[in-house]
Design brief:
Layout (H helix, E strand, L loop, with lengths): L1 H17 L3 H16 L1 E2 L1 H7 L4 H13 L3 E6 L2 E6 L23 H11 L4 H8 L3 H15 L4 H10 L5
């Protein structure tokens, strides 16, 4: 029982040692490299910044999950690019209207975006600070609302409806 508590305390101590602005500085550094290159992989981000590959991958995934970056699968990994006018994409003032009988909730859209990035249910639970059972409940609702039998069908239907990139 003391093991998880020790890990939490060590993690908190590490975050305090780094300072509250450390993440913002690293994020700014990552975005500057992305702006310079136009698109970036986690490995390239690690070479151009002070981030490790794991840190870059997590930050890029988080930014893509929030809709700030556009992920694109390529052989060997995922390439991220900026969304919006500077990448010749139409501006996204809000989500397009959903052609569903019952629209997805904001939380279901968050879960759906993480699933589209290839996250497992466990990874989604950790990123959103919710239980695995809650993720399964949300995915069940997503499948039902999209009329899908599995994850692949749900993602294909969501892309067709422009709910996810």
């Amino acid at each position: 029982m003391a093991g998880p508590l020790v890990l939490v305390l060590l993690d908190r101590t590490e975050r305090l040692r780094k300072g509250p602005d450390d993440r913002k500085l690293k994020e700014r550094e990552l975005l500057e490299a992305l702006a310079e290159l136009g698109e970036i992989t986690p490995a390239a981000a690690a070479m151009k910044t002070s981030l490790t590959v794991d840190e870059a991958q997590k930050m890029l995934g988080d930014l893509a999950g929030k809709g700030h970056l556009k992920p694109r699968a390529e052989e060997g990994g995922v390439v991220y690019s900026l969304r919006g006018r500077d990448r010749h994409e139409p501006p996204q003032a809000g989500r397009p209207p959903q052609a569903l009988d019952e629209p997805l909730s904001e939380r279901e859209l968050e879960v759906l975006n993480l699933l589209a990035l290839g996250r497992t249910n466990s990874e989604v639970a950790r990123e959103l600070f919710i239980s695995l059972g809650t993720v399964k409940s949300h995915t069940g609702n997503i499948y039902r609302k999209l009329g899908a039998k599995n994850r692949a069908e749900a993602l294909a239907r969501a892309r067709a409806l422009n709910l996810i990139p």
